[in-house]
Amino acid sequence: MRILHTGDWHIGRKMNGLDLIDDQSYILERLMEKIESEHIDLVVVAGDIFDRANPSQRALKLANDTLYRINITLKKPLLVISGNHDSRERLNYGSEWFKATDFYINTEIDNAHLPVTIGDTDFYLLPHIEVLEARNYFEDDSIESHQDAYDKILEKINSVLDNSKTNILIGHLYLSDSIASDSERPLSMGLSEAVAEDTFNHFDYTLLGHLHHPFAVNSTQSFYSGSLLKYSFSEWKQPKGFRIIDTKEEKVSFIPLEPQHDVVVYTGDYEDVINETVTFKDKDAYFKFELSNMSYVTEPMSKIKMIYPNTLELKPLLEDRASELTTVDMTTTSDEDIYQSFIETTLDRDVTDFDKSMFKSYFLGEPNETD
């Protein structure tokens, strides 16, 4: 069986105020193409289909159209769980009659121990779980962390495992020692959210969502698909795509996808950017610039956007010049010399005629002012 493992679509996401719905539509179209060309038998979506519990109408339509095409048009069995960004009620609506077309959705602890059997493989759909939710469900006040919660849930699941089959768990959680980015919303406030990988030792594969880096964990049994797009500038160096699990060949592969717009962070000099001394592969990428020598520039963002129209963030680099500071004897140095020294030291440039006129207009005292 060839399983396509994806997740963290975050449909409806915005980045620095920019609506990414067109980028998401583009990348989901590329995913559709890969489902066909890679001869996929089944698709897993490991949570966070939406970015918020109340998505826009456009986000809803894109999600519904995509899931419909996978399941009905392409006729692929589809397994979905809710993530910490999803509304359970919204996802779970219609889940009972969806089963008629091999579309299985789980959003509740109560169904996590019930396998979805497809061929010789049992899938266990374990949605995002809150600690308090598990404590109330099991009526166990000793559950104080995500680890406690998952230990209790897995105890129930492990009791029904059929070891003669391939067993796959689908989850949305944070594995211990994984790499996080700025885009993932914390699973809890004030509670430990990490879960040890050996919690899932009874499974042949653990297919996860929540962390956006596909190589957030180094494992031969547990895998994150990662997000389809870069959703923050902290992700700009991360590969994006999906995984294919071939249970017959016992092989797991990561397949990268090219986005409509890349995300780029550049640190350097303003003049190099504005004069295009440095060049970038895609001028239409979403840029974050961190630049020095901008203090004398009026409206630097508008000037940079003339070259790189999708610049989303511009930060000045504040240079540490403490080691270059010198002491000036105010009694023997003229005001004009002090002003000139200030310009040269702090702005790293020569004094211009404009600077001199400003000095004469605002700083030059009357001839006998200090007499």
TrEMBL record:
Keywords: DNA recombination, DNA replication, Endonuclease, Exonuclease, Hydrolase, Nuclease. SUPFAM superfamilies: Metallo-dependent phosphatases. Gene3D superfamilies: 3.60.21.10. Pfam families: Metallophos (PF00149), SbcD_C (PF12320). Residues 1-214 form the Calcineurin-like phosphoesterase domain. Signal peptide: none annotated. The keyword Transcription regulation does not apply. Residues 260-344 form the Nuclease SbcCD subunit D C-terminal domain. One of its GO terms (biological process) is DNA recombination. The keyword Hydrolase applies. SbcCD cleaves DNA hairpin structures. These structures can inhibit DNA replication and are intermediates in certain DNA recombination reactions. The complex acts as a 3'->5' double strand exonuclease that can open hairpins. It also has a 5' single-strand endonuclease activity. Heterodimer of SbcC and SbcD. Belongs to the SbcD family. This is Nuclease SbcCD subunit D. The gene is sbcD.
